[in-house]
Amino acid sequence: MSNPPRPSKKHHFVPQAQLRHFARDATRKSIWVFDKSSGRAWVSSILNAGSENDFNSVQLDAGKWNFEDLFQDVDSRSARLVSQIVDRRSVGWFKPGDRVALIDLFATQILRTHFARTTPRHLGARMRDLVRGLGFDPDADPAMAMPSDAALRLGAVRSFLQRDRIAISMVRLVPTLFAAPAGQHFILSDDPVAMANAFPYGDIGLQAHGIIACLPIAPDLAVALVCPTIVSRYEAIDQAEMEAGQRARMEAYRQGFRTGEAIEIEAAELDGWNHRQVARSARYLYAAIDDFDFARQILNEEPQLRSVETHVELGEMGRPPPARKNMAAGWQLVIQGVADHCVLPIVEFDKSGEGLTARTTSLKLLELVAADSGEIRAELYQDGRPRRSIGAACLERFGAADEGWFRVVHNDEGLRALMRKLDSER
C-alpha cells in the first residue's frame, strides 16, 4: 500500500489561484513580490508567495492540527468564479449562487490573513496598557491575560467557520467590476480586501452606508461590493446639474452598475485603491511587473506603514473622536437611516427647543427625511468635528414649511419624556 500524502506545510493566506492572475508571464508560475519592511522587490514562485510555513496549523495537547484543508472548498469555488469574471469582464451574468460565492470569497479573505491573529493580540495589549494607566494591575485578573498563540489560531478558525456573521453584512451590497485605466494596473497585497467610504462622514465597516469593499482579481480588474446608496445616487443624476464631462463619467458608472460590465475608473481612483493595498498590508505586495516606486514613495512619506499589526485602534479615554476630513465647514447634521443617509447644513439652533432643534435651508432634503418613518441616528458636526449624536431617534418638522425648522428627538416616548424632564430641570 502507498503511504497517504503528507499534509502541506506551506499554507496560503492569499490563494494561489488568485495570485496566478497576477503572474509575471504566460507560465503563471511566478510573480513579483515587494517587501514593505526592506523596500526590496524580487521574483517569487507563486507556490511561495502569499504563504507561510504552518500558517494554518496549531499545536494542541494531542499534537499538531493542520487546518489548511478547511479552506479547500471555498478556494475551489472562488478560483472558478474569479476565472469566469476575468474571462467575461463582467458580473452581469451572476446567478444567486455566484453572488453567494463572491460574498464567501470576500468573507474568507477578510478572515484568513495575519490580522485575524495580530489584531486581538494588539487590542489585548492596548487594553492592558489602559487598565494599567488607571492604576490597576492587569496581571491580577486572569481575564486580562494575553492570548496564547494557540488561542489566537483557534480563534481565527472559529471566525472562519462562523464567517456567515460577516457575510450577512454583504448581502445588501451590489457586485461591481472596476477596470484600471489603459496602461495602469492594480496591485495585490497580503490583506487584499480594501475598504473605503464614498462619503466624508462615512465609516469603514461592511454595514456602513457608503461602503465599498474592493478586491483586485487581475492587474486590470478588481471586483467590488458597493453600497446601494451609492448606486442610487448615480441613478438620480438626471435630476442634477453638472458639467458635461462629469455627467459623462457618472453615466458610465451608472451603466456599469446597471449591466455589471467593467467600469473604467479614473487614475486618481486607481491610485487610491493601490494606496489602500499598501497601507493595509501587513508586509507584502504582489504584482505582475516590477513597478513598486509608488509604494516606496508612500512608505517614505508614511514610514509607519512598513509594518502594520492592526486596522483597529482603541481611542484615548476622555478624548473626542478625530475630525472627519473633507467635510464641509460650518455646522452639518448627518442623518443615518435604515436604508439611506444625508447631510443637512444647519444655519440656526434653538437651544431652548426639545432635543436637537435647528433650522436648515435644504428644504427638499428635509422633506424627504421627515417623510421617512424609520428610526434614524443623527450626528452633529462643526467643521468636521463631532459635537453631538442622538441614536434611536426620529426627525419632526414644525413651523412654516419654508422656514426649515425641525427637531431630532428620541423615538421611544418614555425616553423622550425623561429627556424633557431633565431639560426642564437644567
Description:
With 426 residues, this protein is α+β, with helices and mostly antiparallel strands. The chain has 2 domains: 297 residues, no CATH class; 94 residues, Roll (Pnp Oxidase, Chain A), CATH 2.30.110. The strands form 5 sheets. Strands 14-15-16-19-18-17 form a 6-stranded antiparallel barrel. It is globular. This is DUF4238 domain-containing protein. It comes from Sphingomonas baiyangensis. InterPro entries: DUF4238.
User: Numbering strands along the chain, what is their spatial order in the largest sheet?
Assistant: 14-15-16-19-18-17
What's the domain count?
Answer: 2
Work out the helicity level. 25-40%
Average pLDDT number: 94
End-to-end gap: 86 Å
Number of helices: 12
User: What structural class do the secondary elements suggest?
Assistant: alpha+beta
Q: What does the main sheet amount to?
A: 6 strands, antiparallel, barrel
* Rg for CA atoms: 25 Å
Shape: globular
Q: Roughly what fraction of the amino acids lie in strands? A: 15-25%
- Unreliable runs: none
Count the E strands: 19
